[in-house]
Amino acid sequence: MVSNTLIAGTLARVSKSFHKLVSQCLSEASSITPCNVRDLGVGRGCACLTSLLQHSQPRSMDLRTCHSWLTAASIRSPMLASDLSLLHTLTLDNCSKLGASGLKALSLCGCGDIGDGSSLRPLRALTHLQLDWCYTVTTAGVLPILAQLQVAGLHGCSLLDDTMCASLLLVGDLDISFSLVTDFGLLQLAASSTCLKKLTLADLDVVNVWTCALYTEHGLAEMKRLRPDVKQCLVFV
């Protein structure tokens, strides 16, 4: 009869070899697909996804078969603990449990073309939004969510104009450098944004290919006169 010790030792060696082989394969993988991450249930599925991401830098992730268990909570830890700098494509078809209705903070800095921003409208709980250099975002696209924002990073959103300024009712920290805001917009902020404490603007002396500043020294001075409680920060890039 084979002893329990011998069986345990054999299984341990097999498991170690298998883990090494899987790790080697994953380190060379450029994608995570439904073949890698099966519909395992939230506990095993999250553990499997974490393991996969720890051993790879995928260029694409297709998680369609995880729709029965994938939630924002289950995917948060694996994503935060991973290097996703090479990720170009993320497929989450039918993952209806991801629902972002409770999302409070979102950063898309440097993403460039994300459309006009209208896709953000369902995020009714959103209070912190960073869209630095998302240069396709328009005032009309994001106008419906502006009134709920407490922090708005709109640095380099070069299509945003004065129309948005009267809607930023709750914002306390606002960056509108390299946008189309003029003196009129600054006066709108002074009157409407009663919670505003910090305002970041592009320095008027910047020489840049981007729209730098359509407001004037007079506008900045008037903003300071009307709202001495607001700290003005000037940036060059």
Describe the structure.
This protein has 237 residues and is an alpha/beta fold. Helices cover 31% and strands 13% of the residues. It contains 6 helices and 9 strands, in the order αβαβαβββαββαβαβ. The chain has helices at residues 4-27, 42-54, 72-80, 139-146, 183-192, 217-226; strands spanning 31-32, 60-62, 89-91, 105-107, 128-130, 151-153, 173-175, 198-202, 231-235. It has a 6-stranded parallel sheet, with no helix packed on it. Helix 2 runs parallel beside helix 3 (72-80) and helix 5 packs parallel to helix 6. The longest helix is centred in the N-terminal third of the chain and has 24 residues, at 4-27. The radius of gyration is 24 Å and the shape is elongated. Mean pLDDT is 79; it is low at 14-29.
Q: What topology, given as strand order, has the largest sheet?
A: 4-5-6-7-8-9
Number of helices: 6
**Series of H and E elements:** HEHEHEEEHEEHEHE
Helical content stands at: 25-40%
Question: What is the 3D shape?
Answer: elongated
| Residue-averaged pLDDT | 79
Strand content: 5-15%
Structural class category: alpha/beta
Radius of gyration from CA coordinates? 24 Å
Number of strands: 9
Our measurement of the CA-to-CA distance between the termini, rounded to an integer number of angstroms, reads 75 Å
Task: Give the low-pLDDT segments.
Answer: 14-29
Major sheet summary line: 6 strands, parallel
Name a few traits of the molecule.
six-stranded parallel sheet, three-stranded parallel sheet, 31% helix, elongated, alpha/beta
